[in-house]
Structure formats: structure tokens, C-alpha cells
Amino acid sequence: METVLSDLVRDALALNATHASIAEVAEIKFNKDFRTLCEQNSCGSYNKNWMCPPAVGDFNDLKERALGFKQGLLFQTVHPIERPLDWKCMLEGGGCHTKLFRKILECMENNYNFKEILPLNAGPCTYCKKCSYLVGEKCRFPDKAVSSVEANGIDVMALVKASGIPYNNGKNTVSFVALILFNC
After folding, report:
1. Phi, psi of 180 (to 5 degrees)
2. pLDDT by residue (tens digit) across 88-122?
3. Reduced to 3 states, what is the DSSP secondary structure of residue 80?
4. Total domain count, the chain
5. What is the biggest distance separating any 2 CA atoms in the chain, rounded to whole angstroms?
6. pTM over 0.90
7. By residue range, what is the domain housing residue 73?
8. CA 47, CA 38: separation in Å to the nearest integer?
9. What secondary structure letter does DSSP report for 116?
């Protein structure tokens, strides 16, 4: 099992994650306040996406689902920005992060024999250009739809620090975090 865990980290880094580590689910801190931020529409996706609140589900149900996993691959990407709060560069960095997230997820699905995987990314699901939630239709790709770490009430800052990954990566950078939970 140790070999599988070190291979996961190695693969994530080889695919260009800036940092990667294995997180123990039992040590994850959950906090309902992150869902409160969602409900205040702090990222602009509340009630606009199947993988965001309220559609993604109840905080307690999501927490219980996550606690059904033993471990997860935690990884971070760091992207340069031209100046503090450079929204354009932040969006570009988020897009690059999500592309890498999809590559790492595909690598895990194709190269490892996990019984179950729960992928959690940064921000709202962007698999479709326009979420079918907005037009009152069911999710078109439920097997590809991914909710965010924060929508699941996970304290990202505590998680990365506990895993030895820096939360802040220096001036003029933006960092994104993903967590792919798994059971062997």
C-alpha cells in the first residue's frame, strides 16, 4: 500500500502538480462556515451549478460521504499573476489547474485499482460551458461533474498545512487545491 501512495504522489508531481501529498480523511477538518460562504455567493456560483450549493447537497450528507473514504491525494498548483488580485491571470490559473486535475483524475482511474473515488476540485464544476442547472435540466455528465473542496465544508488551509503543503506561495502567485479521495 505504501508503494501505491508514493506512486500517486509521484504521478501527480510528474503531471506538473506543484505540491502533492497523501491526506488521511480522519484528520480532515470540516467546517460549516465554508458552506455559509457559498450561501453568501462569495464566488458567484451559488444556485447556478449542480456541484455547488444548494444543489450539491446538505453539508452533513457531504461530510458523511467524505468520511466514508480513508485517504486522498491532495495536490496544489501555483500560478504566477502579474499583480495582486489580477482576476484575468487568476482565471487562467484556475483553468490550467482544472486541466491538470482532470489529467490526474484520469491517471488515477486508469492506473490504480481503487474501489471508489471521490474527486473534489477548486471552485465550481466547469465540465460544461453552461451548467444544465441554469435551465432546469438534469446534469448532462454526472460521472464527470465535480464539486469543490470548500462546498464539501473542508478547511483547505488546515488541510494543506497539515499535509506539509504551503498555503501561501509568495507574492504575485495564486494557488489552487484539489483532493481526490479514494478507497483501496
Report:
1. -115, 105
2. 898 899 999 999 999 999 999 999 999 999 999 99
3. strand
4. 1
5. 46
6. yes
7. 2-183
8. 9
9. E
